[in-house]
Amino acid sequence: MTTLFTTTNSSTIKRLLQIFNRREKIRFGKLFLGILITVFLEIIGLASILPFMELVANPQAIDNSIWLERAYNFFNFESREQMLIATGLGVVALIGISSATSIATTWMQYKYSWSTAHSLGMRLLQTYLKKPYKFYLTHNTTELQTYIMGEVGSLTSGVIIPVIEIISRSLVSIIIFALLLLVDSKIALVMFGSLGGAYLLIYLARQGFLKRIGHHRINMNMLRYKNLSELLSGIKTVSVYNEQPYFYRRYEEASREFSDVQPKYNLVLSAPRYILEFLAFGSILAITIYLLTTLGDIQSAIPRLTLYAVAGYRLLPALQMAFSAAAKVRHNFPVLDRLHEDLVFSLQQSPVSRTAPESIDFNESIRLKNVSYTYENNDHPVIKDLNLEIQKGQTVAFVGSTGSGKSTLIDMIAGLLVPGKGRIMIDHQLLQSGSIRAWQDLIAYVPQDVFLFDDTIARNIAIGREDEEIDFDRLEDVTRIADIYDFIVQEQKQGFHTEIGEKGVRLSGGQRQRLGLARALYRQPEVLILDEATSALDSITERGIIDALIAFPADITTIIIAHRLSSVRHADCIYVLEEGKVVAKGNYSTLMHTDDTFKNMVQLSS
């Protein structure tokens, strides 16, 4: 039993304590204390059975036991029968209190399990949200969702609670063993050795298997989430291509693999119980024969037989629960490994800055000096020694073929990616980790694929604000500029309070882009970044929106990425990118006369 405890829990407890914050450690300690009290009451209830059964088998035992005689005199019993009844009621009361305490402790375990799952899930989400943008370029978001919403629960139900069970049930087993040793050491050694030894051998034989299927279960669970997410998020394309059977099969294969793992795991948990029940029954028979042959009197054997039977009744589930708990920990150890890495190791690698964030002012220009960037697992830089300057209030455009580095350049200007080489200066201040948050407060960003969530038009535009916090006069202004005001107030019965569905599914592509533009303007930014933000609009609507932005009274610096070059006709400066370098710059008219690459791009896009 000791080996089972130490092999399973030494590193597990250390890792759990590293994961827990102070509040979680306190709650863990309270639960553990409650379990210790329950264990103590269980043992007291068990120990009280022996004197009671001695009185039942032989009321004259009072005269032969100093402890029974003292109890008889202390409580002033008038007869042996009165003491027998009182002792029986006392045993029932102790067992009743023990059972009630067990129920309360079980409720504490369930409450602790779910509240800890919530707490760890929120901390894990917070950890992911603090990761830099490049983290999401190399991690599948479905994998992150699986850990936050699923595997955190596996940690609490499959590691934390089982660890507590192992400790408590080990204590129960050890104390029962000590009690039996006091009564008859030979029987105790045989009984505990056969039951505990059998469990230990089974566990040691299956621990490698449990860890392997634990890894497989996690992988298949993530694959289930991933395949289902891809199917449902791409249902429009899947339906048009009539490929529902293909994506159905992908999910079915992962789901079947996941479901095949569970019976194997459950069998390892439950099978030892039936083996041990057989051994326990055989042990009771052997003890009965032994007592009858050594004591020679069934009446003298009854108290001890009763004690051994009740001890076996308590010991068998204690050993089974300890074994099952150890198997659960081994099975879910990969979850503990991953969450320990995300919640503890990553914080040690990137400690949270204790310094206050820097403020930043933008009054003059954005300058990029010898900037280069290379993505992970890629030997070729996407941006190469790039130098440029954007004056405040300018409208600047970046154009170039696919893969020329336009989006990467925008991501660096927006503070999402940090240059691998070179510097980005805002006025005379270096853009770095301490000032990125303040810089992003000045920026509004409109991507080609606008992020919309299942809520009202108003809340999607004034993102992060409740209705009472929304400035509806500003909503009207920005939706007029984005050319979507008439659609909202004339075609939607609930106006700005219209629900748009998941990812804005009830809107057209152009309407989604216009909502994204309205959201950016509602933010009242100093820098507006448009990354193919009008690609879903017709040429007339696009030109109207661009003209409205140019006429917008605020002193906004606008940065545009566009394939349709008509949208950059009015830009103050256009940068032509090729393989991560600026190969030409100037206004539309100048480039049309001086740069053949730009001229060809215009002709191809018209």
Automatic annotation (TrEMBL):
GO CC annotation: plasma membrane
UniProt xrefs under Pfam families: ABC_membrane, ABC_tran
KW Metal-binding (keyword) present: no
Gene3D superfamilies: ABC transporter type 1, transmembrane domain, P-loop containing nucleotide triphosphate hydrolases
PROSITE patterns with a match to the protein in the record: ABC_TM1F, ABC_TRANSPORTER_1, ABC_TRANSPORTER_2
GO molecular function, one term: ATP hydrolysis activity
Domain of life: Bacteria
Boundaries of every ABC transporter domain copy: 366-604
Residues annotated as transmembrane: 31-53, 83-104, 159-181, 187-205, 274-293
Keyword terms of this UniProt record: ATP-binding, Cell membrane, Membrane, Nucleotide-binding, Transmembrane, Transmembrane helix, Transport
Membrane topology qualifier: Multi-pass membrane protein
Subcellular location field: Cell membrane
Domain ABC transmembrane type-1: 65-331
The keyword Iron belongs to this UniProt entry's keyword annotation: no
Protein name as it appears in the record: ABC transporter
Phylogenetic classification of the source organism: Bacteria, Pseudomonadati, Bacteroidota, Saprospiria, Saprospirales
